[in-house]
């Protein structure tokens, strides 16, 4: 790869030993499904934006970012598994396809932005099945408050949110103060608050985070499930502490839909926001859209088929759209066996070859045996 280069949308990038982007991935860089009117991901993005009307929105940030932004700025250790070539797409040693919208947190906080949403396509190498695709979409949200008068700032913000939602809540009360949510997960020794944060202040921020996300999810699902169950599980991210994953109970299973937490003070300090404290979350849009619209296969989002796209053109908030499947190709199973010389073989590498050759025709790849 030395001395070779690659031109993507007018910019030329040097290639090196780290390069592993594939033609099929690069060809999708310009699709921007979340910006395509009537697309289910567009519909979901705008619904989420409506829940945060006082935020700034960033929907067109470039998915090609430095490794610095995607990992280093956020405190990822040098040996974090997410950095490996089997998990992430690199253009070269320093430039990659973002693996999450958090890659832009520092940049947006640095613009003195106190509340914002970012949406965009993110890239992770993965296996092949109906719920995994190497590109998906995330929506990042963050809100920070002045450490000094946090109590007042938060209570004003909550009043504002409740007044905005009162028209809907008069029908089905999606936005209540969430005392009904089980809060005993809040603080534990393996999910600690940061030593620089006074407990009283952090608690305000945690309550505000839970309130903001619980009310969002209830609103999105208002026509779908009267008794929506939500739970918060302790989690770990290098750039938040404490951290959680939010799950919803759907069709008999807990489904992880969001990671979130209290922003690491280091990140805020680097952005020149030393006197602030706040939360951030990252939602996976495909997961939620598949549940909301009954979309059975993640590849459908990439379809050019009118039979898919036309089903979403008349969306309005009060009507539930349930996707009606249309016939695809008849299924056809292939058994493939092969010998390996290379001990470093990784299943993701095999799936990448399959995607490059068969594109989205392949529905599922299962490893049967390995010996
Ligand atoms: N970026 C994280 C992910 O992709 C999600 C996240 C965002 C977690 C913001 C905490 C805060 O898994």
Automatic annotation (TrEMBL):
This is Phenylalanine--tRNA ligase, mitochondrial. Its EC number is 6.1.1.20. Keywords: Aminoacyl-tRNA synthetase, ATP-binding, Ligase, Mitochondrion, Nucleotide-binding, Protein biosynthesis, Transit peptide. One of its GO terms (biological process) is phenylalanyl-tRNA aminoacylation. InterPro entries: aa-tRNA-synth_II, aa-tRNA-synth_II/BPL/LPL, Fdx_antiC-bd, Fdx_antiC-bd_sf, Phe-tRNA-synth_IIc_mito, Phenylalanyl-tRNA_Synthase. GO terms for molecular function: ATP binding; phenylalanine-tRNA ligase activity; tRNA binding. Belongs to the class-II aminoacyl-tRNA synthetase family. PROSITE patterns: AA_TRNA_LIGASE_II, FDX_ACB. Residues 44-325 form the Aminoacyl-transfer RNA synthetases class-II family profile domain. It catalyses: tRNA(Phe) + L-phenylalanine + ATP = L-phenylalanyl-tRNA(Phe) + AMP + diphosphate + H(+). It comes from the Eukaryota. It comes from Rhizophagus clarus. Residues 327-371 form the FDX-ACB domain. One of its GO terms (cellular component) is mitochondrial matrix. Is responsible for the charging of tRNA(Phe) with phenylalanine in mitochondrial translation. It is an enzyme of class 6 (ligase). Pfam families: tRNA-synt_2d. It is found in: Mitochondrion matrix.
């Amino acid at each position: 790869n030395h001395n070779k280069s690659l031109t993507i949308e007018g910019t030329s990038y040097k290639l090196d030993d780290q390069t592993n982007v594939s033609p099929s991935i690069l060809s999708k860089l310009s699709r921007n499904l979340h910006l395509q009117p009537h697309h289910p991901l567009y519909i979901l993005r705008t619904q989420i934006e409506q829940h945060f009307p006082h935020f700034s929105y960033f929907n067109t940030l470039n998915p090609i970012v430095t490794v610095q932004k995607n990992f280093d700025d956020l405190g990822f250790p040098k040996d974090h598994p997410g950095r490996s070539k089997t998990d992430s797409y690199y253009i070269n040693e320093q430039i990659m396809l973002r693996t999450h919208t958090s890659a832009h947190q520092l940049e947006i906080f640095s613009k003195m932005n106190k509340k914002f949403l970012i949406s965009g396509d993110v890239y992770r190498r993965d296996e092949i099945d109906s719920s995994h695709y190497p590109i998906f979409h995330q929506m990042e949200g963050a809100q920070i408050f002045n450490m000094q008068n946090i109590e007042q700032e938060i209570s004003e913000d909550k009043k504002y949110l409740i007044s905005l939602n009162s028209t809907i809540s008069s029908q089905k009360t999606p936005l209540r103060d969430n005392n009904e949510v089980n809060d005993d997960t809040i603080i534990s020794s393996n999910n600690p608050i940061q030593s620089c944060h006074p407990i009283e202040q952090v608690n305000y921020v945690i309550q505000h985070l839970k309130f903001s996300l619980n009310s969002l999810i209830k609103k999105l699902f208002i026509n779908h499930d009267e008794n929506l169950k939500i739970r918060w599980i302790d989690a770990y991210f290098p750039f938040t502490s404490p951290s959680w994953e939010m799950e919803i109970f759907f069709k008999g299973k807990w489904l992880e839909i969001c990671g979130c937490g209290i922003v690491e003070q280091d990140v805020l300090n680097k952005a020149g926001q030393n006197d602030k404290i706040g939360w951030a979350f990252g939602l996976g849009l495909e997961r939620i859209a598949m549940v909301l619209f009954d979309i059975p296969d993640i590849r459908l989002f990439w379809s050019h088929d009118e039979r898919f796209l036309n089903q979403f053109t008349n969306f309005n908030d009060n009507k539930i759209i349930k996707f009606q499947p249309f016939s695809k190709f008849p299924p056809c199973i292939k058994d493939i066996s092969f010998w390996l010389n290379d001990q470093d073989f990784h299943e993701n590498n095999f799936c990448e070859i399959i995607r490059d050759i068969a594109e989205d025709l392949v529905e599922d790849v299962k490893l049967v045996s390995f010996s």
